[in-house]
Amino acid sequence: MINLEDTIAAISTALGEGAIGIVRLSGPQALDIAKRVFSSTKKKVIDETPTHCMLYGFIVDPETGGAIDEVLLTVLRAPNTYTREDMVEINCHGGVLSVRKVLEVLLKQGARLAEPGEFTMRAFVNGRIDLSQAEATLDIIRAKTERSSRIAMNQLRGGLSEKITSLREQLTEIAMHIEAYIDFPEEELELSTEKEIIERLQSVRTELKELSSTYEEARFFREGAQVAIVGRPNVGKSSLLNCLMKQDRAIVTEIPGTTRDVIEEYLNIAGLPIRIMDTAGIRETHDLAEAEGVRRSLKAIDGADLVLSVLDASQPLKEEDRMMLERVGQKNTIVVLNKSDLETKIELSLLPQDLEQVRISALTGDGLDKLKDMIVKKLLRHGIADEGIVITNLRHRHAIDRAVAAIEASEEAINNRSPYEIIAFEIRDALDGLGEIVGAVTTEDILNRIFSSFCIGK
User: What distance in Å separates the CA atoms of residue 154 and residue 158, rounded to the nearest whole number?
Assistant: First the structure.
């Protein structure tokens, strides 16, 4: 667990050449450490500088008196800071050496190097944000599309937190009502009261189930949807990847078996981040390297959220095509009829009629927009509103499903005339499940798993 008595420091910008590099300090000694290493060109004093104001000067090594870098230093006083602690942000020249030397001098003066995500963990521990908002911070950093960023921003602004808190308050009121009868065992629930409690529990359960149901599609905006391009050799899988990426990402030749491994790239289609995978041609082969590629292709099919099953429309259907179509039959699949710029020779009547089809030419790009539209519709069948409250995090879904199960158990306990203690226990279990989402109920293991995913400096 973090020690809030420490003052932490870290580089908050990516290492490498750039215009600006930022080193930040947070903790009870942040301002004192800054005073020892900062020299203002106009003799400004940090103690007299109002919060959220910037000073110009130099970072100086107190041991040698030598200047390390020309900087702009921002004074941020508690509690109106990211961590709700005193903070200092030092804007250095961008580059590996300058920011590292500034960080080193801060560590020599008593700061400790921050752990991954420790600044955000302190914001959570000090009550500035709840746990779901902390996770949304990471989602914003990792967002690959504008829609992904908007969904994460909605959670950071407290959309999910407000929803969960409201539902917890409703359950708390019900729990208090039940526990009042535990304190007075001679009293019994009246039928009208019992009916009202069950209706209120059902209302909360319905809202939670609706929230949980958003996960399957909303998670794509956090993790990226996995789309596998599959088919026998030389049907144009790699050409399709290159066409979608608008660059020559995969090697294309007329030699079967050119692609021997799964090639992965990220693609943005209508704001939906897609992890698209070009796979090795699926066929019987005695070549060990190609056989391994085929095995990985089959594995990619199993893990894909959507399969683009590519066929060469300029040739009759082959046995390898039939094997591939049979393999993807139970998956969310689009049959892509490639080479529409050539004469059509494939027997359309032999294709599975329950699978959606689209004609394209990876050579000319014809039909590509229609394919993209179809990809989005097949992945987002229920539609996800950017401004709506959705679940993108598997941890949140598990917690909600646990709460739903506990509420159902409490309803059953009421109907079975079980002791009030059992009813109250189940409702409290539901409260704990929801509490894990916002951090009202936490364990050190949960916190470590969440914040260890952050970069150092955030």
Answer: 7
Q: Which two tokens stand for residue 26?
A: 């947070």
Q: What is the pTM of this model?
A: 0.80
Residues spanned by the domain of 119: 8-129
Helix (H, G, I), strand (E, B) or coil at 324: helix
Q: Give domain status of residue 413, yes or no.
A: yes
Q: Is the dihedral of CA 28, 31, 33, 34 positive or negative?
A: positive
Q: Strand pairing partners for 46?
A: none
Structural tokens at position 19? 């215009």
**Co-location of 358 and 419 in the same domain:** no
Per-residue pLDDT tens digits for 60-105: 999 999 999 999 999 999 999 999 999 999 999 988 899 999 999 9
The structural domain count of the chain equals 3
Query: For the sheet containing 272-278, what is the strand order?
Result: 263-269, 272-278, 225-230, 306-312, 333-338, 356-359
Instruction: Dump pLDDT digits (tens) for 298-316.
Output: 677 778 899 998 999 999 9
Question: Does 93 fall in a domain?
Answer: yes
Any idea what the CATH number is for the domain that residue 21 is in?
3.30.1360.120
Alpha carbon distance 351, 370 (integer Å): 20
Q: Count the residues in the chain.
A: 458
Alpha carbon 287 to its chain centroid, in Å, reads 39
